[in-house]
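Can't paste images in this forum, so I'm doing it all in text. The chain is below; anyone willing to post the predicted structure tokens underneath?
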Amino acid sequence: MIPPPCLASPSRYDRPDFYRRCGRWGLKLPMISLGLWQNFGGDDVLENSRATARRAFDLGITHFDLANNYGPPYGSAEETFGHLMASDFRPYRDEMIISTKAGYDMWPGPYGNYGSRKYLLASLDQSLRRMGLSYVDIFYHHRPDPETPLEETAGALAQAVRSGRALYTGISNYPPELTSRMVAILRDLGTPCLIHQPKYNMFERTPEQGLFEVLSTEGIGCIAFSPLAQGMLTNRYLSGIPADSRAARNRRFLKPEQITPEIVHKARALNELAKARGQSLSQMALSWVLRQPAVTSALIGASSPTQVEENVAAANNTKFDSGELERIDQILSPNTSHPL
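Text version of the structure:
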């Protein structure tokens, strides 16, 4: 039996403080955004993907984040989202922020990767067809290209906006110095950079080493991807590697050898602190990301509506006292050990 079209919850906007402005720009994003990197591909169950996306929207998540090669197979997450737009979300298009990206490998040959004008604009056209959209809200360059001039990549992003195929431009995985240069070029082209998407979590704090300062100075928003470290900052791996876990099933992005005894020690210690705060480990990890002034939104992945519900609840408590932050830093210190 096919579920009826989406009738969004009338209470989805009852929490205006759930939305944060992207830097100094007019666009607001929910504190928790839904990424379709995993669990929305052609190999996944469509009705589960549908139920997850619908629950997210009912809880006030208006931002759905994609990329050309999300799946697997490549492109299938955008196709799935296209089905959901047609069956559920078309009446709500103007309430949604939909983003996609190009920059990693997508199709064979010299024009299906990195940052050339040819690749970026062709990829965007393909993405729009897969999703059945006339435009996306944010179009990102997914990673720096060491061989293509920034001026060419920025020009392609600017053309996407001028042509009406995107409303805003963004970048992802750019280090501080390249971010500053790209921001300056985009500003000169009249299509300012809205947002940066770096990896940021308790185990990956590189953005604290200069990037957040650049974003704050330039007034650019930030959405942190992998805030739960691919599940290592949840209760999933506190007692080993479950057979149905990501590390056991899909080793492309999280390998069993990454879940070291040291990581388990730290996760267990963090879990005890989360309990004292009245949160799950995943909720505290999201709250910790959101406590950073430069961060606009935390980008979650979810395999069920229940996971979305748990993660959204993290926004209820993003305050940390100095003792809690000091304890977290102590736990995360490479020189700190914790008994099993």
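The beta strands are 19-21, 28-30, 32-35, 63-65, 97-102, 136-141, 166-172, 193-197, 221-225, 297-300. The chain has a mean pLDDT of 93.
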